TrEMBL record:
It catalyses: (R)-5-diphosphomevalonate + ATP = isopentenyl diphosphate + ADP + phosphate + CO2. GO terms for molecular function: ATP binding; diphosphomevalonate decarboxylase activity. Keywords: ATP-binding, Lipid biosynthesis, Lipid metabolism, Lyase, Nucleotide-binding, Steroid biosynthesis, Steroid metabolism, Sterol biosynthesis, Sterol metabolism. GO terms for biological process: isopentenyl diphosphate biosynthetic process, mevalonate pathway; sterol biosynthetic process. Residues 198-356 form the Mvd1 C-terminal domain. Belongs to the diphosphomevalonate decarboxylase family. Residues 12-182 form the Diphosphomevalonate decarboxylase-like N-terminal domain. One of its GO terms (cellular component) is cytosol. Pfam families: MDD_C (PF18376), MVD-like_N (PF22700). The lineage of its organism: Eukaryota, Fungi, Dikarya, Ascomycota, Pezizomycotina. This is Diphosphomevalonate decarboxylase. Signal peptide: none annotated.
Amino acid sequence: MAETIYKASTTAPVNIAVVKYWGKRDPKLNLPTNSSLSVTLSQADLRTLTTATCSASYQGQEDSLILNGEPSDIKGARTQACLRELRAKRAALEAENPSLPKLSTLPLRIVSENNFPTAAGLASSAAGFAALVRAIADLYELPSSPTELSLIARQGSGSACRSLFGGYVAWRAGERDDGLDSKAVEVAPASHWPSMRALILVVSAAKKGVSSTSGMQQTVATSDLFKGRVANVVPAHMAAMEAAIKDRDFAKFAEVTMKDSNSFHACCADTYPPIYYMNDVSRAAVRAVQAINEAAGKTVAAYTFDAGPNAVIYYLEEDSAPVVGTFYNLLQSTDGWKDEAKSYSSTATQLDETTS
Ligand code: ADP
Ligand code: DP6
Ligand code: CO
């Protein structure tokens, strides 16, 4: 008789931080040096699609992960930590309900695809690990809440804990050594400020030279500027950002977003040897945002850059014309600008509406 193949598929969105996570206080448990805050983008534009299967017919084989059509490493400690926790939760369910199939003992096959550049500074690790954890949790029929899953996804990639929620999401750094208080919480649903938009400009789809994991550990080890960021800058930015979101104050939201991106990239430049994620086109995008805001006579656009050259521009729907139209006109006269540079326009997402 053919063995059953158990299967679950899910999608997960990208999130782009407006107060950045950069630095681990515990690399093993993936605990951050500071809290962070992000906006979850619509899955209509950028998303990871992951399918997890397990079957007795896979017995004797190892767990496997196919990422964007290529076999990918699943043995890394961080992926293993996610699989171990999910299996332990399933094993506990099976112990309570002996009639359940013993899925926790079966090899897993995971197939995942990102519909946007991987490892290029567009949060593929965030969408990727959020999808991986939720696909397996669904496969195992775990009764876990998004908060519980965020604790597991955090161990795969820190930023992934925020992609389990829609809208405006904080990752509270927490204080405990076991990391049980280092998790994502919703600050406001997308419906609280539904006109928020993100324009994503893919300056380069190439894999970054320094991964986020390695870059932030070099910064923690060598940057003096970073100490001030953690002690003073981030706490002030977190408080101001939460107030700006609560009050739907775009000018404040934009100022903190741009200052926090500047502070993060300054710490990268202060790393020894320095790390430069932004390039000439990224800097032209910064100037374009300044020009747009000056022309408007108020703040209508905010730039932010993750660990890569690609720009994310936050703006409000009602300002689409001055922001999106002008942005391209300004960049087209930039050296190094490629007409084939791709862009996406995205809305903040209410996760419940879009996830399976
Ligand atoms: P990014 O800026 O895209 O998040 P990172 O350096 O943080 O770049 O992480 C990239 C890594 O995340 C990839 O090399 C891969 O190991 C992992 N990753 C990306 N997408 C997925 C996915 N869909 N499923 C599992 N892992 C993924
Ligand atoms: C600049 O979450 O990718 O995008 O935990 O080592 O996987 P790991 O790092 P990752 O770092 C993201 C850094 C950032 C800022 C952010 O998303 O908050
Ligand atoms: Co990442």
